[in-house]
Structures are given as C-alpha cells and as structure tokens.
Amino acid sequence: MFPLALVVFCASGFAALLYQVIWQRMLAIFSGADVYSATVIVAAFMGGLGVGHLAGGHVADRVSRRSSLLLFGAAELAVGVFGLFSGSLYYGVLYERLGALDLGREAIALILFASLLWPTFFMGASLPLLGRALTDRIDRAAAAVGALYGVNTLGAAAGAIVATWVLLPALGLGGSLQIGAAFNAACALVMVPAALVRSDRSERSDRSIRSERNDLNDPNDPNDPNDWFWAWAVIYGCAGFVALSYEIVWFRLLGVVVKSTAFTFGTLLTLYLAGIGLGAVAGSRWAPRAAQPARTFFRLQAAAGLTAGLLLALLVVAADRARALHGYFAGYEPLDVRESVFALRTLAVNVLPGPDVAADLPANFLRLYVLVPLVLVVPPTFLMGCAFPYLQRVVQTDVRRVGRRVGALLLANIIGSMLGTVVTGWVLLGLLGTAATLALLTALSSLFLIGATAGATNRRPVTVATAAVAVLLVAGMPDAARLWARLHGTTAERIIFAEDNSGVSVIKADDERFDGQKTVFVNGVGQSVIPYGDIHTALGALPALVHANPREVAIIGLGSGDTVYAAAARPETTDVTCIEIVRAQLDTLHQLARRDQYAGLRALLADPRVTHVAGDGRAFLLRHARRFDIIEADALRPTSAYSGNLYSDAYFTLVKNRLKPNGLAATWAPTQRVHDTFVRVFPYAISMPGILLGSSQPFEIDAAAVSARARDPRVREHYQRAGIDIEALVRQYLEGPSGRFGPEFDRTTLVDVNTDLFPRDEYDLSAP
C-alpha cells in the first residue's frame, strides 16, 4: 500500500502545482499582475491549504484508516471537478462579468480568497488524511509523513516544470486544466478501490492501535516534547516565514540574473520545490534513526540560511569573474529561449553528435536556467525540506494524534509563510532592498542555533564558532549598489538604481559621469535608452501626429520615458496618463535628471500634463470608465512574463472600448501573431514597419497633414529639446511598407492569434 500511496500522492502534487500556475495566471487577468495582486493570490492559495491541513488532521484522527483513504479519494475528486470547471469561474465569471467593476482592493482580496478556498481546502486535507491512513505505529510516523510530504513536493516540482515547458506552450491554460483534472481523477480511481479492499485484519489492527498510546520517548523524561507541541508549531511557523521570504528574494535575484521571460518563474519554482522535496525524502530515511532529532532540526534550519547567504556571496563573485556570465549580465537582450530549446531538441535527437557538438550546445541557457539557480536555491531548500521529518520525529508521540499534529504543524508553517510573503514582499523589499533583506534573513536563520545548543554545554564552543561565521558572512555580504552593479555587468559608479516591492530599475551609463548613452533595465532586462529617438519614440509620436486632436492620451509603460515624452508633443494634448507596474522606474529617472543635463528627460518630469500611475495598465483600463483619444502600450517583448495580457484579443478589445470616437490605438507588432490579433479586433487598422494603428472609425494617415504637424514650431521645439529629428523619424515610417485593413477584409482567415487563455507568443517554443 505504501509504495502505491507514494506514487498517487506524487501525482496529486503534480496536479496541485499545475493548477497553481494556471490559476495564478487567470486570476491576475482579473485582479492585475502587480505585486499586490500576486501576493494576495499566493496568500489566498496558502490560506486555503492551511485550513484544509487543520481540518483534515482532525477528521483523520477520528475515523478509521480505511475511511481516511476513502476521504482522500473524495478530496481528489473534489479538486479535480473544480479544476475542470475553474476556467469558467476564474475567467468567465470573475474577469468577464466582475472585472470591470471598481470593487476596491479589499473586495478583490476577499473574492480571491473565497474563489480558491474550495480546491485548496481539499488539497490541504490530503496529507493529514493519507499520513494517518499509512501510520499504524508511532515509530513509523516520521518516515511515512516525511516521505509523503517529500514525494508530493517532488510531484509539485514536476507539475511546475511540465506546465511551464510542455503544457502551456502546447495546450494553453484551458487545455492544461483538463490534464490536472485527469490526474486528480486517476488518484481517486486508484486509492478508493485500494481502501475498499483493505483486509479485516488491518481494520482490527487499526482499532487496536487507536485504543493505546504509543510513545517512543522516555515517559520519565521531564522534557517530553509532547508537552511542547505548540511551541514547536510556533517554531515551524518561523521556519515557514524564513523559507517563503527566501523564495521571494531568490525570485527577485534570479529574475534579474536570467533576464526573466515567461519560462523563468516556473523553472525557478521547480528547483525550489525539488530541493524541498528531495530533502524531505532524504530526511524521512534518516530521521527515524536520529539520536537527537530536535537539535538536528535546528541545525538544519540554521544551515539552510547560512548556506543561502554564502551562495549569494559566491554568485556575486562569479558574476564579476566568469566571462560568460559577466557578458550576459552586461547585455541588453534576454536569452532567446525558443532558439535554445530548439538547439537542445536537435542535440537530443542526434544520437551520434559530431565534433562540433560543443559549439551547438546552448551553454548560456544551461548556465542560467539550470546551473545558477540549481546552485543558489537547491542546497538551502534541501536542508529546509530535510528538517521536516526530524520535526515529525520530535512531535509525533501518539498514533492517535498523527493527523492533527501533521495538520497543525503544516498550518503553522503556512501562517508563517503567508506572513513571510506579506512582510517580505510588501515591506522589507521596499524598505530595505534585496541585499539588506537577504542579509537580515541570513541573520534570522542563525537564531536557530540557539535551539541547537539548548541544554548542551559541551557543544557551545562549536555553536559560538558557527555564530561567529554567521556574523562574518552577514557583514561580508554585498550591499545593494555592488549587487545590482555586478548583476548588470558593470561597477557601482556607473549605475543608478532603485527598487521596491514591485521590481528593480537600473540605469547603466557608459562612463561614471553619465554624459553618454544610458540604458534602462527593468528586472535585469534592457528596456530602452537615453537619449530618445528609437522605436519607443516612434510609438508615441506617430499616433500623436496622426490624430487630428489628441487631447487625452494613455501610455502603458514608462521605461526611459521616451514614448510618454513623444506622445505629449502636440499643444492640443492636455493630459497624458502613464501607467507603470514597476514604480521604481520613475525614481531612477528622477535620480538621473539630478545628475544629467538631458533636456528631454527633465522636460518630461516637469511636464504638468503628465500623470504617473503605479499599477497594472490593463487593470487600470478595465476598472476605469474614462476614455482616451490615444491608448498605447510601450514596446514589450512578446516572451516577457505576462506580456500576453497586452497582446491578446481581449486586451485589444478592451482598448477599443476605452477609446473616444475617432480614437486611435497603437501597438508594437513584434510578431505576425500580434499583427493578426490586432487586425482581427479593430475594424480599421493600418500597419507600418513594426507599428500598428487601429480604430473603430475610418481613418487615414494623411502624410501631408502629419508632416505639417511635425513642422509646427511648438511640436518641433518639443522634439528638438530631446535631440529628436522628428521629420526624419516620421518619414522613415510614412515611406516604408504599409497595409490597410478595413471592414471588407476577411478576418476569418486570421486564426493563429493570441488569447488570454492561450498566449501563444509568450509560450512559443516552435522551431525558429
């Protein structure tokens, strides 16, 4: 029975993380992709798990082991049925029917918690139910519960990686949900018959076990851990706080290191979960033989934090000395994941690779998506996971309470994790920054050494030495300037940086005086340059010069500010609203304006017509009934995480509905799929090289009128202030190839498009 249960619970974990990846994406369409919404979604998911852990534990201890197995199967069915229809709830009801309502943050948070409670409750109940069902003797509790926890987490890791790299690219969100439901159904179909055929002898044994107390500890021991269970629960809650805080900081760091794409989060989550799962499996084998499980638990928790701090310090050293890493960090473009995957597929099918195989190997892809996160994340998470069975070894003293104690411990851990998510994600990153937050977490982890030496005077010298090492490690960790400089391939004197809980913004200069070209990076990815004058400028200038009277303009995305600046050139324009999800960008631009004399940036920041709004641009349009003459989303790579939210047919429809009569929508068209999606939505569309304009009413690009507006002295002065030759820039697009698409164009031929539930460009891994 036990091996079968391990396989089933691994599959259950696979489905759970598959759902989490998909639901987080769906719910972000409703609530927004900003840090507040992301935090609430994660907290809501964990909160439901915690309630399920507690309730499942109490139920498991009050029913037979056969009934626990049956209830486990019922829980899997409940999750699977919900998963199968969850797309209709999360997208069809929440987004399409409630999304446009200005509900307020508190109401949205309540809706998110309520909508996730049913499936996460049953997910959480499954471990206490299965753990109790498979524990017939108390001396097996640590091994059984630890192994179940480990394989479930490994299954979750597999779910994250398969969802990210296989299912979402092939099936989209809706199709992937069906796979999750199938896994849940399979789990129930396996475990329910297994429970029904349990022998009468097993049931008699179960009744006998419930009638007696089994305690491995000396009953005369005054320090019986049974008397300290709730203290252990609080301690494990603190461990959860530290673990989730590390996860948030690691994702911030590695997002910058990798130059995040749509595949980054799932890959990093896989390694995080794999480390915990492997550690729990290993600990389940070692913990039953431990002479001092309590002290070992504390040592493992302390070692996890110290290892995390040490590995970060080594990463900063490697970033400066490893040529391949340094070159990538200094670069503008993120890794071409699609090309790298194609290269790996080619090598995989080549049974006898030739002598040039090393040249064909996508080395940077393997370094950045495998080696660096593997080294940085897996060792400390392995230690964290390994600690869980040792804690079970300490607190499980009565077979009649196995379920409740598993549930209560996991609930405490989840409460700590939720606090870590909120405190670190909302407060510490904004107040202290990434570098100082990581140093603080390393220092907090070292406090577990106190528990490792409690009552053991002979080990105090070792602990004092270890604490001294921890102090030196914290003191020697890189400060924020050095950290972000190294991860952008330069020195601290050549960057301006700012970070808060929404992200990291870095402006890198060619020299220490900031007199030459500056490059703007957001979360490690190059966004634009200063001075202005490239595609970002054209995206703002063209619709502003084409529209007859552009009074109110909305721009999604700030970057270097060139699109916003270019869109504000016309004297008729009275209001420009810029919505930016990473608030730190505006801070870095203000810092640069104080050090640099670039007139275009200074004019932008001083322009009273420009209003800066922090938040998700799509959510802003969705919940504000205000209409604009021009709406434009600044150039965004189609492979960036959540970019599909700004390239889907539903987004373009939203933009169309927020335009005034004769209003214009503008977008960068980096792929044919984006082009076709835009044209499919707007009844009137005109394409120029790399740029699309659309409207609900007929419009033309009158070259003579556009040129006349560009020659207006006030308009020309606006662009000249930023060093932009506006007439030459406009000519480049007006004289280039173009296409016009009116109502007569057969849009039924445009079938390969981006939708909210299948953002094809974002997850495109087809052959280049």
Distance between the termini: 47 Å
Low-confidence spans:
208-226
Kindly name the structural category: alpha/beta
Largest sheet: 8 strands, mixed
Number of helices: 28
Mean pLDDT: 89
| Number of separate domains | 3
* Rounded radius of gyration (Å): 28 Å
The amount of beta strand, in percent, is 5-15%
| Approximate shape | globular
Helix content, binned percent: 55-70%
Compute the number of strand runs: 12
Strand order of the largest sheet: 7-6-5-8-9-11-10-12
Description of the molecule:
By secondary structure, this protein is an alpha/beta fold. The chain folds into three domains: 1-209, Growth Hormone, Chain: A (Up-down Bundle); 227-478; 530-749, Rossmann fold (3-Layer(aba) Sandwich), CATH 3.40.50.150. The chain is built from 28 helices and twelve strands. It has helices spanning 2-31, 35-60, 65-98, 105-133, 141-196, 200-210, 229-258, 264-286, 293-321, 323-330, 337-349, 357-360, 363-395, 402-431, 434-446, 448-453, 460-476, 480-486, 535-546, 562-567, 584-595, 599-606, 617-623, 649-657, 672-681, 703-711, 713-721, 726-734, and strands at residues 495-500, 503-509, 518-522, 525-530, 552-556, 575-580, 610-614, 628-633, 659-668, 684-688, 691-695, 739-741. The strands form two sheets. It has an eight-stranded mixed sheet, sandwiched between helices. Strands 1-2-3-4 form a four-stranded antiparallel sheet, sandwiched between helices. Helix 3 packs antiparallel against helix 4 and helix 26 (703-711) runs antiparallel to helix 28 (726-734).
